[in-house]
Every structure is written in C-alpha cells, then in structure tokens.
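Please decode residue identities from the backbone states below.
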C-alpha cells in the first residue's frame, strides 16, 4: 500500500470524505495532534485503526464530532456535559459519557462509555462536515510511540499501513486533549490533562475537579485513551536531567529554552524563551528529532516546580514517555 499525502484542496477534501464514508482510513490534522480517522459507526473500519496502529483492543478510541447535536446522537448528555460542550467546543476537551446503542463496541473496547470531542482545527471540521459521519480518531502513529504533529510524522510512521494523509501543517497545541470523566457529573475527574486545565473546568462548573486515573486493579478495559503508564515514548531511553553536568556527545540533551551562544549537534531546545505553549507545541517534534539522532539516551530538563496549567499536561506526557515498559 502506498501512503499519499494530500493537499487540502476542495477536491481532495471531497475525495477523502468519500473514503471515510466507505470505510477507509484517513490521517487528519487536529489542533492537538494528527488523528487516524475512520467512520465511527462502522465497526469494520474502526478495527482497521487498531490494525494499522498495532493498538491493543482494550484501549478505546475518541470519537470526533462536528457539534453537540451530533454528539448527543452518540452519548447520554447530562446538564454539566452540555454546559461544558457549549463552552469549550470546538476545542481540546474530550468528555467521557454513557454511550448510546449505535456506538460499536470496538470503539469503546466493549465498555458502556464513549469519549467524545469536537475539534477546532478548520480542516478537521471541513472534513467532518463533508463526511457527514462522526470520526473515531486516535493519534496517527504506531501504538505507544511519540504522537505526530505534522503530516510528515504520519507519513513516515505509518508508511505502507494507511493510504491517505491530509496535510494540515503543524498542530498548534501539540499535546493531546484533556479527557474529563463526566459519568458521575457531581464528581468530575480529569483522566488525562491537556490544554484545558482542571482550574478552568472547576471554575466553570463551580465544583472541584479531581485529577488522576480511575482504573480498578486488574482492570483490562481502559475508561479512556491515554491512560496507560507507558505511552508517547521514543525508542531511545528518555530520562530527566538531574544536574547540569557535562553531557557526552552520544547523549541528546533537550533544553526547555534556547541556549545562548553556540550549541552542539546533541543539543535540542523546545522554546526560544521557555514559554509553556511553545514547549508543548514543539515537544513531540523535538523528541522525534532526538530519537532519530542515533543517541544512546535522551535527557530532558525538568519543568520548573509549581508551573501548573499546561505544564501538567507536558509533565504527564513526559512521565509516560519515560516509563519502563
């Protein structure tokens, strides 16, 4: 199978919408990361996502919708969920809610809940509108590897495994969406931090929002994607930089901000001035570049203590990327 990268022309969008309606896969840009999309109500198409990614069946998929009206066809919305959708959609917030009967079990890993979000990326929205179906779309990469934030990342990682990639440029946020469990609306809980923070959600809802995973001991089915202890990982071992000792040439060093003066081939940086939004936007791109450099190890500077906000999402991704499988 040849993997083709498509420019976002009107003709290509119509063509890719037909591919999706007929059960094919298309890698699409979103504001967070690129997703590998399939018709969410077509069980066979969704199984192809798992095959192409090498994704285990117990890890459910996020379903992308155009708006709240489409989402309410797929899940049982409570008043808090409707308020959140009206406030934060389209955007990087995923809501976990009881699913309706039409959602295939393969999408939810056999469970009673479904994860839903409405992306804000204009090309994702144009494709959703053209396809006229909801799209299941986990990150468009081999399972467990660093998420893709450009069409080039997708085409390299899934070459020969998928036929179509829609090029929407670089993803503006760069880390996956916030996932909020609202199956018990009086006790909302963030399952995966993202650009929309716990403080924002708590302030809007007027009640505390818990953080942390909610997986029972020995539980095989995950409540939502992105909850595995090891995920988003480069193939090269990744460690936190513990001190400013001299780094040998066969170790890559990832700095939070651009160092002054001359640098070496093993020095990478995430932001010119250490800004959290830039760090998040460039995190996966820089980790991929360091991973491709042939180094025996990657060391990354820790985030400043108490940074909060988007730093929580960055720290979460790094913790999982550094976990030993």
């Amino acid at each position: 199978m040849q993997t083709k990268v498509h420019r976002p022309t009107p003709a290509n969008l119509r063509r890719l919408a037909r591919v999706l309606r007929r059960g094919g896969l298309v890698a699409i840009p979103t504001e967070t990361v690129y997703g590998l999309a399939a018709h969410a109500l077509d069980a066979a198409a969704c199984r192809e996502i798992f095959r192409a990614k090498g994704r285990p069946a117990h890890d459910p998929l996020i379903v992308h919708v155009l708006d709240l009206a489409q989402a309410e066809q797929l899940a049982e919305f409570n008043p808090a969920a409707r308020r959140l959708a009206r406030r934060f959609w389209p955007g990087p917030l995923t809501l976990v809610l009881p699913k309706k009967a039409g959602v295939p079990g393969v999408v939810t890993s056999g469970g009673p809940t479904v994860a839903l979000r409405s992306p804000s990326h204009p090309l994702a929205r144009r494709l959703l509108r053209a396809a006229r179906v909801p799209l299941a779309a986990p990150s468009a990469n081999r399972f467990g590897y660093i998420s893709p934030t450009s069409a080039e990342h997708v085409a390299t990682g899934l070459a020969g495994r998928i036929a179509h990639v829609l090029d929407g440029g670089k993803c503006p946020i760069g880390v996956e969406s916030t996932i909020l469990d609202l199956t018990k609306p009086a006790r909302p809980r963030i399952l995966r931090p993202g650009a929309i923070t716990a403080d924002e959600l708590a302030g809007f809802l007027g009640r505390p929002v818990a953080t942390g995973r909610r997986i029972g001991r020995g539980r095989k089915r995950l409540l939502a994607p992105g909850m595995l202890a090891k995920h988003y990982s480069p193939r090269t071992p990744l460690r936190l930089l513990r001190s400013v000792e001299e780094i040998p040439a066969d170790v890559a060093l990832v700095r939070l901000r651009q160092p002054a003066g001359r640098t070496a081939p093993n020095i990478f940086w995430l932001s010119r001035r250490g800004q959290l939004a830039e760090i998040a936007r460039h995190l996966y791109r820089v980790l991929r570049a360091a991973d491709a450099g042939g180094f025996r190890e990657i060391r990354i500077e820790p985030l400043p203590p108490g940074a909060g906000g988007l730093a929580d999402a960055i720290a979460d991704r790094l913790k999982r990327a550094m976990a030993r499988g």
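Observation: The first helix runs from residue 10 to 21.
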